[in-house]
Write a structure and sequence with these properties.
By secondary structure, the chain is of the alpha+beta class. Helix content is about 35%, strand content about 20%. Keywords: Aminopeptidase, Hydrolase, Metal-binding, Protease.
Length: about 600
Amino acid sequence: MFEAQFQSFDEAADPSQGAPRLAALRAALKEQNLDGFLLPRADEHQNEYLPPNAERLAWLTGFTGSFGFVIVLTDKAAIFVDGRYTVQVRAQVDGAAFTPVNVAETRPADWLRENAREGQRVGYDPKLHTLEGFERFEKAAKLAGLELVALESNPVDDLWTDRPAPPLAAVVLHEEKYAGEAAAAKLARVQAELAKAKADALLVTDAHCLAWTFNIRGGDVKHTPLPLGFAIVPAKGRPTVFIDGRKLSNAVRDALAEATELAEPRDLETALGTLGVEGATVRLDASASAVAFARALEAAGAKIQRGPDPIAKLKAVKNPCELNGARVAHLRDAAALARFLCWLDAEAPKGELDEIGAAEALETFRRETGRLKDVSFDTISAAGPNAALPHYRVTRATNRKLTPGFFLIDSGAQYEDGTTDVTRTVVIGEASPQMRDRFTRVLKGHIAIATAVFPKGVSGAQLDAFARKFLWDVGTDFDHGTGHGVGSYLSVHEGPQRISKLGTTTLEPGMILSNEPGYYREGHYGIRTENLIVVGPREIPGAEREMRGFETITLAPIDRRGIEAALLTAEERSWLDAYHARVLEEVGPLVDDATRDWLARACAPL
């Protein structure tokens, strides 16, 4: 009945190959008179989702998470992950070959300084390291007496005999009815920012910024409609887009040529050299651009102006057309999600449904909207202890039946008018008192963010504790951010806006973020409640400052069976009841009678 077309449940990497591949890498390094190698999980664009030919870290180690870093030395090797993956890395990686390290406890550069020996030569691929990140290794190498060696050829690529070819997905135009602004107008705004910064040109290496600026989309990486390429935007004159011409139809080529010059990616190095000859001041985002590009500019004579890519902030603030599209997309998605949750409530108690079956069903309901372009990430369909892994990905090897307790499903969709991301934790059978306590504390944190009112100029870091307070009260927490930015038919994880301890970007009206506190009891269960929210103005009588707040645009019932009502304040209960009334009012007319009846029960006042 159900099937998945946009995601696979096969295991992508084989951890048993870790030891022999590590041995082969060490042998290759020895041939080059190298004592070590630095390998980030990255491509030239610093994408979160990588094209298959860039999944070097997964090929070497077996680890398939979205963040990882490996340091290989002659006698030891370490794989660094963040708090989302501390359990997953132990399951996927041969611990005898690679020692897992939590990056929050030990940074890779510090580990290198402490474990490498003076005089050793450590290689790196300069196209995979950001300038900012690499400078930390330079400092560590200087302290430890190491030599860092830039390699022209990545040794992993040389060993990876069946490495996939680079992607060549067709580039498509993102119509102005979805984008809300012509590429020429966007370019004018970018060039105005460059003029203010007194920069002669901007080097664009982030494919999301490329896609947004030129109103193009593609399919070079899974789940995010990205065309991989680069651009140079001058403060005056026509920009140049460097993209493989085989991706461009005549119609797309003609449309792009109205606002930009076109060149092949191999021409970028020459163009950087030209900027150097001209003595240009080039804006470069040191946290997102590869050290190779910075070194090329410097060697040619250009002056590097370090600073955020101005496109990232412009892209983060959605225009009215994009916001309207997001609301429409979320309403469409809500109907599919309601159908799924109704179906799940009927099927889960039978005891035969498993994680893959649930993920396939939800994707199918979304496809039946007729508008689904892709899922926005691999669905996190997690039962029992699997839900305690915040970024669990179900495979045929890990697939579990949905048994009594909590079932967590975190999923999203890519529609041309908007990108969605929603998590619900569903009670199957009975939830224990402790489970209801933790579920309710997560909900209280979610409501605290949803109802937050704050002055202009506040960042996500200042709000993050709102979501954690009720878990802190009982001595626990969660190890991921409270919220990430979301793109407009782009990345489901968009910067620079976020709600986290590191979220220093000011929250501006028009930004879309997630609101997703959680709780994870390793080996038992996990809880997360996630809606998407939009920053907007708030009118407060007598206010002395310009205020901001959030509009919730995700519309799906929160499972009342998991709530310990006594823990909620009257204000929190009022918020929940009003939210459910809105869900029923807006989603009810879009679904069949059976789903509408279920929705009425799920959205009843607490």
